[in-house]
Amino acid sequence: MRFGFDIDDTLINLREHAFHIYNKKLNQNVSLEIFQQLKTVEIHEAFGLDKEQGNQMWNSLLEEIYFTDCPAFEGATDFVNRLVQDGHEIFYITSRPANYCPKTRNWVVQKGFPVEDAHFYCGMQDHEKINIIKELKLDFYFDDKPAVLETLSDVPTKVFVKDQSYNQHVNIPRVKSWVDFNF
C-alpha cells in the first residue's frame, strides 16, 4: 500500500516547538495550556502579536524552528518504519518553502524517518497537495491542516487528521497518538 504523510504537526510537533522558541525570544512565559487551546494553526495570538507581527516573527525564525531540536510525536518514527518493514511505500508531502526542501529531507532522515528521494515532495502550496496525492494514487494520507483536508473530500484515498486544537471541527478519522494508532 501507499501511505502519504505531511510532516509538520503530523509527524513532528513543530507548532509546540515554535511556541517554546517564541516564549524564549519574546522573554515571555505563556503557558502550554494556552497553546493547547489555540484554534488557529498560527501561534502568534498567544503572544499578543497581530497577524503581520506574527508572520514576521515566524519568518525570521524559520531556520531555528525547522532545523533545531523539534521532536517527532511519540511513536511516529516507529509507526512509519514499521510500515516500511511491512513492505509499504511511504511518501512525504510537505508545503515547506522550496528553498528548504533539501535541508528538510536530510533533517527528516536524521530524525529517524525512512525517506526515498523519489518519495519526498516539498515546496508546493497547501492547496496543491491534492494534485500530488491524486497523482501518487495514495491509499492513505495523514495531515493536520483543515485547509488541506477539505480539498481531499472527493479522492479515493483514505484520509486521516492528526489531532490538533485547531482541527477539531474536521469530521474525519483522527490520529490522537501514533503509539496507539491502528487501522
TrEMBL record:
Where in the sequence is the signal peptide annotated?
none
From which domain of life does this come? Bacteria
Question: Which top EC class is given?
Answer: hydrolase
Look up keyword Hydrolase and say if it applies: yes
From the UniProt record, which GO molecular function terms apply?
5'-nucleotidase activity
Instruction: Tell me its EC number(s), please.
Output: 3.1.3.-
Question: Keyword annotations for this protein?
Answer: Hydrolase
Task: Quote the catalytic residue positions.
Answer: 6 (nucleophile), 8 (proton donor)
Work out whether the entry's keyword set contains Secreted. no
Q: What is this protein called?
A: Nucleotidase
The top of its lineage is:
Bacteria, Bacillati, Bacillota, Bacilli, Bacillales
